[in-house]
């Protein structure tokens, strides 16, 4: 006789805390309460403390006169500018050193990463030593080393080390020729822009043509020729309208030319060398992640080495390399905040340093500084997720 | 049996490889000079090494000054390591009072034994030793280092410094961020939306900002968060910042391990009627943590390197003590020696950790990776 058992526990019976849904609700409510009370307590303390110290809250201080000078400003700035302007100056300096660092670190990193896979034993070893040496030494030590032990130990301007009599290295940094655009120079950048757009369109056309007819065009060669050639022709045709102001030693210092701060050089060197060690490992692991079967299959189709590399290995390696590379770029941007240790005027040194000390608006300034880095990080990871979704291995 | 058989009945003696592919010369030929491009590369590398490595060795070892106590011992040809040896005590102990330095030695020794015990795979009772390291050791170390009870002299954290402070920050950071990271990782995978949301925001916030701003926040903003009369120790503030910051990174490493564990494991636990914490503690976490040991060690390395950042908020760790020594008017102009020494100390710690993580990776490589 089959009859439904009446002893089975029915849903929703029994003590309330046995019900998973209700238990989850209780846990979350408790967490919410604890957090709310805790944060409320902190806010209360802060308000009491601020009142006791007589600090006004709010962002009104940004309108105030800064009254201090900054050694490197990419846009106009005087000590009469506002505190708000110091934020912009610092941010621009952070972005400048980050951009320089990213370019250099990528180039060094790729070279070292490929060298580690070289069949030449000596070269591979050298690359391994590079990676193991630089990624195991704190970045701060490296920055201080380059700044104090190398760049600050350079001779005075009068005994500068010179390179081609155009670049001079001394204790005050590097002096290099300053390009002065003359009349008619603006045609050259326009030519460059047109060339880039044209090559981009040509690339699209070549891709379509290859999809239709199977015939490939030498896009890389034509592209490189046009991008370099067109601006060059325009530049020469308009009569080379560019004048270089060479730095000249007058008295105890150089006149003319662009002076690059030793702080910027030290930070740039340290950031690129340090990050390159990590990028090299990423590049190496990316290339190794492409299975042997892929290259062997390409060879059995008798594809030439260069095509195998360009069309088979690199696109698949990129899938591994790009996400990790972006996180290294983000690390580099965040690490550029170590500038404050040697006094390079970046966001943290200028805004969270001098401006904070002068105004005492700790909460607002730290919050703004953190927000900048957060916005950069979150934007880049959002773009990265889009890229990942696009390049994800399409499986059946 | 005939002798003029078509077939050999005995093996021919193996002939020696041609001269050119044997011995040192053969190795050189195969690895360095196989083809014109490789030969050029090899020669360039050898020249580069001769230009860089030899002068460095000459400076650091051959021409260096090792013996002495004052600046007069420096001949000025090579490195003057007297600069380091003259202030070696302060590089290790900071400003810790001389009479109490045995306490630091005991903590160092205990730490070394515990770490060695945990690192060598053959040693028994790992679980208990790990528990001891994470729970009992910090308490012992705290009472020994701070003092003020059991008849020990009180040593304020102001007096801490040098390698001792670097290791303190690193150990507290590691011991604190691991459990916090586990909780955050579990929370991020929770089905409760509020719990998950809180964990995601916490993790992404700390991962999105540089450690320096965190330390600034700890040193400038934390005092505002507590009632005014409470004096918040500077080192403690830095430690809280470092712990929160690294727990977020730790959480992401552990989460990657949790994701690698199949659903079946959790469901099997449920079928056995185990509670959430039993399933996590007995089934999921032991497997997941074991899988991500290399990632955890890499986070430790990063944490260890970044302890040097505390010099920016005015704590005297190994690097800061050396830097302070460089401004001593008796010892101006030894920054190269100072920073090379600091780099070497950090390098030894980090390189051994990274070697250990590679060794563990090879050992673990048997089960999960196919």
Characterization of this structure:
The complex is a heterodimer of chains A (396) and B (370). With 396 residues, chain A is of the alpha+beta class. Helices cover 64% and strands 7% of the residues of chain A. Chain A contains eleven helices and eight strands. A four-stranded antiparallel beta sheet of chain A has the order 1-2-3-8, with helices on one face. In chain A, a hairpin with a 2-residue loop joins strand 2 and strand 3. The longest helix of chain A is centred in the first third of the chain and has 34 residues. With 370 residues, chain B is mostly helical. In chain B, helix 7 runs antiparallel to helix 8 and helix 10 runs antiparallel to helix 13. The interface between A and B is large, with 53 and 56 residues.
Walk me through the topology:
The complex is a heterodimer of chains A (396) and B (370).
Chain A: H1 20-53, H2 83-116, H3 121-135, H4 139-151, E1 161-163, E2 167-170, E3 173-176, E4 178-181, H5 187-213, H6 219-237, E5 242-245, E6 248-250, E7 253-255, E8 258-260, H7 262-289, H8 292-300, H9 305-335, H10 347-359, H11 362-391
Antiparallel strand pairs in A: 1-2, 2-3, 3-8, 4-5, 6-7
Helix pairs in contact in A: 2-3, 2-7, 2-10, 3-7, 4-7, 5-6, 7-9, 8-9, 9-11, 10-11
Chain B: H1 23-31, H2 36-62, H3 82-86, H4 88-93, H5 101-119, H6 126-146, H7 162-188, H8 193-208, H9 211-225, H10 234-260, H11 263-271, H12 276-291, H13 293-306, H14 318-326, H15 335-364
Helix pairs in contact in B: 5-6, 7-8, 7-10, 7-14, 8-10, 9-10, 10-12, 10-13, 11-12, 13-15, 14-15
């Amino acid at each position: 006789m089959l009859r439904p058992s009446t002893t089975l526990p029915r849903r929703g019976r029994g003590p309330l805390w046995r019900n998973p849904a209700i238990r989850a609700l209780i846990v979350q409510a408790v967490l919410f309460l604890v957090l709310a009370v805790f944060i409320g307590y902190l806010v209360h303390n802060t308000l009491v403390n601020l009142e006791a110290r007589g600090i006004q809250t709010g962002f009104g201080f940004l309108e105030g006169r800064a009254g201090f000078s900054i050694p490197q400003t990419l846009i106009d700035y005087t000590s009469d500018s506002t505190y708000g302007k110091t934020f912009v100056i610092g941010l621009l300096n952070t972005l400048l050193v980050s951009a320089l660092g990213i370019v250099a670190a990528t180039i060094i990193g790729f070279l070292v990463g490929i060298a580690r896979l070289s069949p030449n034993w000596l070269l591979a070893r050298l690359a391994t030593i590079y990676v193991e040496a630089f990624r195991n030494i704190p970045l701060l030590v490296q920055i201080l080393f380059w700044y104090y032990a190398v760049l600050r130990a350079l001779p005075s301007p009068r005994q500068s080390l010179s390179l081609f009599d155009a670049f001079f290295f001394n204790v005050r940094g590097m002096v290099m020729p300053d390009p002065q655009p003359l009349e008619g120079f603006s045609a050259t950048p326009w030519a460059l822009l047109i060339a880039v757009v044209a090559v981009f369109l040509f690339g699209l056309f070549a891709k379509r043509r290859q999809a239709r007819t199977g015939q490939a065009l030498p896009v890389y060669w034509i592209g490189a020729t046009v991008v370099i050639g067109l601006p060059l022709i325009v530049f020469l045709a308009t009569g080379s309208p560019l004048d270089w102001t060479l730095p000249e030693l007058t008295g105890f210092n150089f006149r003319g030319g662009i002076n690059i701060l030793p702080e910027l050089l030290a930070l740039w060197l340290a950031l690129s060398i340090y990050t390159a060690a990590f990028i090299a490992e990423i590049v190496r692991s990316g290339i190794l992640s492409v299975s042997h079967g892929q290259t062997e299959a390409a060879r059995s189709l008798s594809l030439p080495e260069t095509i195998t590399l360009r069309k088979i290995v690199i696109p698949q390696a990129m899938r591994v390399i790009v996400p990790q590379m972006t996180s290294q770029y983000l690390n580099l941007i965040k690490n550029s905040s170590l500038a404050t240790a040697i006094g390079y005027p970046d966001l943290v040194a200028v805004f969270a340093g001098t401006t904070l000390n002068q105004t005492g608006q700790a909460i607002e300034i730290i919050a703004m500084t953190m927000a900048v880095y957060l916005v950069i990080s979150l934007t880049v990871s959002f773009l990265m997720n889009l890229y990942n979704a696009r390049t994800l291995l399409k499986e059946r | 049996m005939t002798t003029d058989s078509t077939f050999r009945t005995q093996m021919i003696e193996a002939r020696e490889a041609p001269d050119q592919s044997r011995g040192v010369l053969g190795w050189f030929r195969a690895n360095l000079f196989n083809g014109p491009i490789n030969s050029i590369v090899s020669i360039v590398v050898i020249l580069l090494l001769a230009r860089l490595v030899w002068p460095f060795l000459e400076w650091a070892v051959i021409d260096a000054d090792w013996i002495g106590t004052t600046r007069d011992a420096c001949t000025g040809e090579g490195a003057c390591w007297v600069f380091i040896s003259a202030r070696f005590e302060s590089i290790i102990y900071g400003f810790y009072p001389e009479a109490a330095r045995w306490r630091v030695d005991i903590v160092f020794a205990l730490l070394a034994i515990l770490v060695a015990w945990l690192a060598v795979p053959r040693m028994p009772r790992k679980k208990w030793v790990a528990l001891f390291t994470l729970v009992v050791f910090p308490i012992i170390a705290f009472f020994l280092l701070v003092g003020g009870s059991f008849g020990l002299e009180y040593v304020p954290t102001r007096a801490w410094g040098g390698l001792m402070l670097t290791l303190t920050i690193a150990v507290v950071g590691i011991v604190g961020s691991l459990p916090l990271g586990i909780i955050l990782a579990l929370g991020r995978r929770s089905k409760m939306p509020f719990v998950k949301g809180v964990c995601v925001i916490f993790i992404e916030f700390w991962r999105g900002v540089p450690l320096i701003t965190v330390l600034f926040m700890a040193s400038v903003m934390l005092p505002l968060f507590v009632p005014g009369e409470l004096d918040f120790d500077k080192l403690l503030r830095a430690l809280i910042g470092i712990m929160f910051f690294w727990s977020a990174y730790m959480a992401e490493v552990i989460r990657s391990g949790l994701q690698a564990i199949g659903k079946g494991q959790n469901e099997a636990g449920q079928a056995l009627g185990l509670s959430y914490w039993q399933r996590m503690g007995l089934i999921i976490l032991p497997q997941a943590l074991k899988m991500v040991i290399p990632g955890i060690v890499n986070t430790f390395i990063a944490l260890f390197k970044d302890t040097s950042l505390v010099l920016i908020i005015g704590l005297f760790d190994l690097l800061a003590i050396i830097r302070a020594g460089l401004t001593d008017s008796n010892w101006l102009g030894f920054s190269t020696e100072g920073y090379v020494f600091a780099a070497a100390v950090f390098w030894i710690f980090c390189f051994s950790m990274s070697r250990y993580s590679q060794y563990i990776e090879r050992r673990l490589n048997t089960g999960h990776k196919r």
